């Protein structure tokens, strides 16, 4: 569409016809708009945001620091951090080859934003505030000429033809409409976005929560809020419907409601659908000594019993257990039925076996999920089989592109979901679909 035929919007007009409409003012939406204007500077790009505050997830993510991406530069290694991504993550390969973490770092550097890599591979702005990222996106979009309209909620989407020109019409809750031949949807994982896409015949997988903490009433956790571990492994135990899950590892945090931290969040991501199916009623096993085998843990207990027979079990743990906080050790000893007055020299074989089981495969009942608001994402979205993978255009709906969390792809915590936002936004914004 020529810009000469674009009708300029004013509040008094009922509708606006433009070249490209991006729906959703989140990370992927802003980046898609920026990409569209970068690759097609002659086109008029309009970004619509339902609320008055765009980029809210960017602003609150990472505790207000914004974990922009992760220092994983091999696309094949990168896809291993996404529980869903189409056929074992292969659908994501093209996206990350086209625009990966290295490209993200370079792009922000070109805008004057330096990203700093932390020891665990996460990258944050060197200012240590998410406002830097939000301002960068908004300022860049404004400089390129992206038009933005806030408080504009879309509740209907339809495709029609006018003067042999295929167009998309988007209608707001107030009855106003916006029309364009190309539309990029960045609506996150909320129900309205799913309904909007499903309404135009695009195949979808229903959305369920991912990246959440575990509610657990286990008595061992009572009074231990704030206790943390640098490294554990965790997995869901088998039940009548599912086999035992694969182990996930990372730091663990005990909270007043149960279990949190990267190990739990990763497990919740990989097992999102299983946990949804069982109503978040399950058993999670935790190994707080992942560097040691059960046999090695038992040997450490025996060696300590022989070396320090007069010490109280509840007060002293083997040196090999240095990663276990004292408060947790005391709670574990009590859980295993070991009296506070028992000395190591009197520790029975059955009591040692109970300690080994509690430390290497401690089982905690999950009775629900907590919402991890900073990193909350949705498992589900537009199926990859319904998309042209190299453009993210819907096969059944030419001119309609899907980006970000609306895709049936999501990553674990650590900057991977934002990387998906940048990659999908950049690729879709090139607008290499049916009308090009």
Task: Describe this protein's structure.
It is elongated, with a radius of gyration of 26 Å. 31% of the residues lie in helices and 25% in strands. With 436 residues, the chain is of the alpha+beta class. It folds into two domains: 3-8 and 15-209 and 374-429, FAD/NAD(P)-binding domain, CATH 3.50.50; 212-371, no CATH class. It has helices at 27-39, 56-64, 75-78, 90-98, 101-110, 131-144, 191-198, 262-270, 272-277, 294-307, 326-335, 349-361, 416-429; strands at residues 15-17, 20-23, 45-48, 69-70, 115-117, 122-125, 147-149, 154-162, 165-172, 177-180, 182-185, 204-210, 212-215, 228-236, 248-254, 258-260, 282-287, 362-366, 368-371, 377-382, 387-388, 393-394, 397-402. Strand 8 and strand 9 form a beta hairpin.
Write the layout of secondary structure elements.
Layout: E1 15-17, E2 20-23, H1 27-39, E3 45-48, H2 56-64, E4 69-70, H3 75-78, H4 90-98, H5 101-110, E5 115-117, E6 122-125, H6 131-144, E7 147-149, E8 154-162, E9 165-172, E10 177-180, E11 182-185, H7 191-198, E12 204-210, E13 212-215, E14 228-236, E15 248-254, E16 258-260, H8 262-270, H9 272-277, E17 282-287, H10 294-307, H11 326-335, H12 349-361, E18 362-366, E19 368-371, E20 377-382, E21 387-388, E22 393-394, E23 397-402, H13 416-429
Parallel strand pairs: 1-10, 2-3, 2-11, 3-7, 11-23
Antiparallel strand pairs: 4-6, 5-6, 8-9, 9-10, 12-20, 13-16, 13-19, 14-15, 14-17, 15-16, 17-18, 21-22, 22-23
In a few lines, what is going on in this structure?
The protein has 436 residues and is α+β, with helices and mostly antiparallel strands.
């Amino acid at each position: 569409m020529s810009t000469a035929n674009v009708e300029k919007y004013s509040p008094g007009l009922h509708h606006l016809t433009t070249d490209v409409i991006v729906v959703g003012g989140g990370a992927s939406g802003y980046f898609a708009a920026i990409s569209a204007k970068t690759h097609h500077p002659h086109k008029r790009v309009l970004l619509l945001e339902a609320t008055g505050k765009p980029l809210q997830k960017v602003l609150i993510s990472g505790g207000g620091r914004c974990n922009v991406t992760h220092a994983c530069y091999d696309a094949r290694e990168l896809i291993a951090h996404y529980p869903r991504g189409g056929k074992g993550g292969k659908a994501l390969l093209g996206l990350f080859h086209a625009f990966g973490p290295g490209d993200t770092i370079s792009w922000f550097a070109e805008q004057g934003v330096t990203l700093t890599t932390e020891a665990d591979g996460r990258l944050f702005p060197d200012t240590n505030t998410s406002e830097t990222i939000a301002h960068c996106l908004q300022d860049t979009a404004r400089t390129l000429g992206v038009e933005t309209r806030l408080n504009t909620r879309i509740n209907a989407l339809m495709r029609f033809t006018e003067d042999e020109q295929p167009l998309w019409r988007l209608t707001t809750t107030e009855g106003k409409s916006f029309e364009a031949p190309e539309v990029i949807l960045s609506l996150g994982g909320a129900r309205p976005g799913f309904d909007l896409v499903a309404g135009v015949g695009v195949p979808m997988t229903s959305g369920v929560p991912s990246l959440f903490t575990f509610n657990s009433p286990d008595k061992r956790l009572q009074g231990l809020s704030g206790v943390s571990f640098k490294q554990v492994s965790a997995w869901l135990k088998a039940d009548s419907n599912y086999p035992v899950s694969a182990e996930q590892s990372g730091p663990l945090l005990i909270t007043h409601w149960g279990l949190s931290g990267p190990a739990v969040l990763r497990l919740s991501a990989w097992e999102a659908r299983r946990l949804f199916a069982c109503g978040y009623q399950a058993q999670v096993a935790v190994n707080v000594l992942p560097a040691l085998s059960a046999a090695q843990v038992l040997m450490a207990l025996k060696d300590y019993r022989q070396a320090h027979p007069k010490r109280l079990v509840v007060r002293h743990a083997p040196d090999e257990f240095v990663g276990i906080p004292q408060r947790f050790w005391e709670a574990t000893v009590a859980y295993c039925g070991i009296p506070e007055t028992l000395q190591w020299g009197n520790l029975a074989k059955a009591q040692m076996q109970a300690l080994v089981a509690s430390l290497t495969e401690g089982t905690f009942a999950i009775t629900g999920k907590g919402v991890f608001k900073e990193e909350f994402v949705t498992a589900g979205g537009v199926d990859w089989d319904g998309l042209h993978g190299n453009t993210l255009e819907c096969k059944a709906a030419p001119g309609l592109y899907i980006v970000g969390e609306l895709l049936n792809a999501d990553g674990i915590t650590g900057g991977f979901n934002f990387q998906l936002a940048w990659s999908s936004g950049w690729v879709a914004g090139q607008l290499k679909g049916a009308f090009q």
